[in-house]
Amino acid sequence: MLAAERRDHLLTRLQAEGSLVAKELAAELGISEDSIRRDLRDLAAAGLCHRVYGGAVPASPALADYANRESVEPDSKRRVASQAAALIQPGSTVILDGGTTTLAVVQALPADLGCTVITHSPTIAAALVPHARAEVFLLGGRLFKHSAVTCGAAAAEAANGIAADLFFLGVTGVHPVHGLTTGDADEAAMKRTLAGRAADTYVLASTEKLGAASRYQVLPLSAVTGIIADGTPNETVAALTGQGVTVLPLQA
Amino acid sequence: MLAAERRDHLLTRLQAEGSLVAKELAAELGISEDSIRRDLRDLAAAGLCHRVYGGAVPASPALADYANRESVEPDSKRRVASQAAALIQPGSTVILDGGTTTLAVVQALPADLGCTVITHSPTIAAALVPHARAEVFLLGGRLFKHSAVTCGAAAAEAANGIAADLFFLGVTGVHPVHGLTTGDADEAAMKRTLAGRAADTYVLASTEKLGAASRYQVLPLSAVTGIIADGTPNETVAALTGQGVTVLPLQA
DNA sequence: AGAGTACATGCATAAACGTGCAGCAACGTG
DNA sequence: CACGTTGCTGCACGTTTATGCATGTACTCT
C-alpha cells in the first residue's frame, strides 16, 4: 500500500469511526506504529485531524465543537466576535452562521440593539431571546446533528426567500491554498447558499482556524468580502493578504 | 477508548443528563475513579464544566438554567413527560411543542430511539442533538421571544408541508369550560396548525395547568385525542372525564 | 460529633511519544 | 549500467504521559 493511499485510508476511517488508535492501525495495516504516528503527525500539521495521546480525532467534529466552546482560544474568539459585532449597523439585517464563534458574536452584541438576525442555528436563535429589540428569523429544515444547524433542501429553500446586508460565515479552516473549508458537504452547500443571500460576507477566523483545512470547500477566498482575524501577526495572514484578500483588522 | 475521546464523552453526557457522578462513570467506562476525577478536574480548569463534590455539573448558564427549571417541579413534570415518551413508537413521527414540559419529554426519551421529531422550538431541537438516531426537523419562521418558538406566516406555511403521527401540545391552561388556552394569539394559531398536521394530539398537563385558563383558546377539549396528566387525583380531572375527555393515565 | 465517602498528592508501572540512525527501494542522472 | 540522491520504513534510545494504587486530608450526612 502506498503511503499517500494509506493516509487517505486513515482520513476515511477517521470520518467513519470518529477516532483512530495508532496501535490498532499498526496491527491492522501490518506496519509499525512509528509510521502511523508519522502519518497522523503530518495530517495534523495539515489541519486534517487532531492529534491526541494514543491516536487522533477529527479536526472539525465532536472534539472541536466542544473544545471550541471556551477553552481553545477564548481571547482570540472574543476579539474576533467583538470585531464582527461592531460591523452590525442598527436597523440592518444580518445572517449568522452556526458555531461557537458566531455564538460569541451574539454575546458581544449590545442587549438593546435593534436589528434583524437570520440564522439556521437553533442555538444562536435561543441565545438571542434576551435581545428584546432584535428580530430573529429562524431558517427551518433538517437538523444536522454534528454542527446543530439546519441543512438540506428545505433549509436551502427557506434561505432563498431572504436577503440580508451581512453574513458572518463560520468555517473550520482558512487556508491560503484550500480556501474556506468545513467538514461536511451538505453544510458547505448551506453556507454557500447563505453567502449568496447577503450583500457582504465576512469569515470569522479565530487563531486556530488560520492555516487549517478540512475536507470540503465552502467558498474560495476571493468570494468573501473579508476575513475577521484577531490582531496577532501570523504568517498565514501574510499569505492571505498577499493574495489580495482583505483581512480585518488591517491593524488594531 | 482514547483519553481525549473519553473526555469528549463526558462532556456529551454532561450536556444530555445535566450532571455527572464520578463513581458511576468509573464503573460504566471500566476505569478507576481517579482517572475520572482527573478528567473532570482538567475539564473544569478549561471552563467546560463545574466541579462539585461527587461529580460535575455544566458550566454553561443556559444548561444549568434548564436543569434548575426542571428541578422546580420535577415530579409532576417528569411523570407527565415519561407518560408522553412512552407513547412514541420507534420509527414514528412526532411533533413536539415548545416549553419546559416538552423539554422534559426529550429528556425522558431513550438516547438511542430511532424516530422523527418535528418542532418549532429551537430549544427542543438543541436538546435533541445528543439523540443520534432521532431525525430532527425544525420549522422555521419568526422567533416569538416570550416562548422561544417560531410563529407567524412562514412557520405556519412550513408546518403545512409536514404530517405526523403524534403531536404533544403544551398549553398554559386546561379548563373544563374554557378548554385549552395560551397567552398569545399568534402562538395559539401555530399550535392549532400543528394539531391539524398530526393524526393524534395529546396535551401535556402538569399539575399547575389543570383548572387554569389563559386569554386565547388553542382548541376545544373535544379536538384532542387525550390529556396526559400525572397520576394524582384531582377534581378538574373528574370534570374533564365527565365531559368524555380522555385523561391519561386512566389508571396508573 | 462520628462514620463514611470523596478528594488530592505522591509514587510506580506501563504505554506512547519524539528523535536519531541505519537499511532499503525507487528514482534520476551521467 | 553505475552511481548518488531522495524518501520511506523500522529499530533503539531516552523522555513524556496516563493510569492505578496507597496514603493522609477534607468534606458530607446522620
Count of extended strands of chain A = 15
Q: What count of helical segments of chain A does DSSP give?
A: 10
Largest sheet of chain A: 7 strands, parallel
Portion in strands of chain A: 15-25%
Task: Offer a few descriptive terms.
10 helices; alpha/beta; DNA-binding; three-stranded antiparallel sheet; 252 residues
Fold and architecture overview:
The structure is a homodimer of 252-residue chains. With 252 residues, the first copy, chain A, is α/β, with parallel strands linked by helices. The first copy, chain A, contains ten helices and 15 strands. In chain A, the strands form four sheets. In chain A, strands 6-5-4-9-12-14-15 form a seven-stranded parallel sheet. In chain A, strand 5, helix 7 and strand 6 form a beta-alpha-beta unit. The relative contact order of chain A is 0.12. Chain A binds a DNA duplex (30 and 30 nucleotides) through helix 3.
Give a summary of the structure in a few sentences.
In chain A, about 40% of the residues lie in helices and about 25% in strands. Chain A has about 250 residues and is α/β, with parallel strands linked by helices.
